[in-house]
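User: Here's a structure from my thesis project, written as structure tokens. My advisor, Dr. K., wants to see whether a designed sequence matches the one we expressed. Can you design one independently, without my sequence as a hint?
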């Protein structure tokens, strides 16, 4: 792999902050690969810590983000939570025996994931490495090249 430049992505939902994403070229296959900095989510302008704090609040683990998210970020976080709710079965299957057999609600799933795996960053690493998926979606970028 050779470094192949970079591009900018929004760092905050409001678009006021940007960060660089490194790109690499696989010479043998002719594909480019982008590498997100740690603590960033695929296709979302949210930091993993904010997502974790919001999900902890939704699951009753904590009392809320400090400071609370502004309106635009709150909307992004709510959409992410709805996406997580829709993926409860996929995620339960992905983590398999790491979780209790019966997790009837997404709230209990998040609580179980926090106990079994730890942080949201650790969950993302596990899913990407072992399952080729992410917390909020099964993205093409996580699949191996044909």
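Assistant: Designed independently from the structure alone:
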């Amino acid at each position: 792999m050779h470094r192949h430049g970079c591009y900018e992505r929004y760092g905050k939902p409001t678009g006021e902050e940007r960060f660089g994403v490194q790109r690499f070229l696989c010479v043998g296959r002719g594909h480019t690969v982008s590498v997100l900095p740690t603590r960033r989510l695929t296709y979302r302008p949210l930091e993993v810590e904010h997502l974790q704090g919001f999900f902890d609040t939704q699951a009753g683990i904590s009392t809320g983000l400090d400071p609370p998210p502004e309106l635009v970020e709150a909307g992004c976080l709510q959409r992410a939570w709805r996406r997580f709710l829709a993926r409860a079965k996929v995620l339960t299957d992905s983590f398999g025996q790491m979780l209790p057999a019966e997790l009837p609600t997404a709230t209990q799933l998040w609580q179980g994931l926090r106990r079994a795996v730890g942080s949201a960053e650790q969950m993302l690493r596990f899913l990407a490495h072992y399952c080729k998926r992410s917390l909020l979606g099964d993205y093409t970028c996580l699949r191996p090249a044909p």
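When you compare it with your expressed construct, this may help: Residues 31 and 145 are 8 Å apart (CA to CA).
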